[in-house]
Amino acid sequence: MVIIEVTENKKQYIDLLLLADEQEDMIDRYLDKGRMYILNDNGIKCECVVTDEGNGVLEIKNIATVPEYQGNGYAKALIAFLVKEYGNEYSILQVGTGDSPLTVPFYEKCDFVRSHSIKNFFVDNYDHPIYECGVQLVDMVYLRRKI
Fold it and tell me: Exposure check for the chain: N or C terminus, fewer CB within 10 A?
């Protein structure tokens, strides 16, 4: 297993990026300014994009695992990599996500705790309703962990 930074042609991974953020113009808002990493384990299994939010905060803007490899620890491995790679430069790793019974527990298992939320984020910023596990995503929930 190897984690590689992608510095050019990030859009070649658009299908994987769209798994975590299903509207391409929303991805375009952070893709160029973010640092992108892919996890290769006999093929690309997972990706993430992080941005510097200032004040010692590094934010995961996008993290996704190829569906048939979900549950194998690839996203956890990427998060562990971020903690190790950026621990001396940042004090907080945060992520914004929908209030979903699938994603929130995953982040909580990775030592994230709820921080704050943005009301109606998904309703106001996406051109169609977003559903995960049968639940419509409305508010953006932020979770944080110290690194």
Answer: N
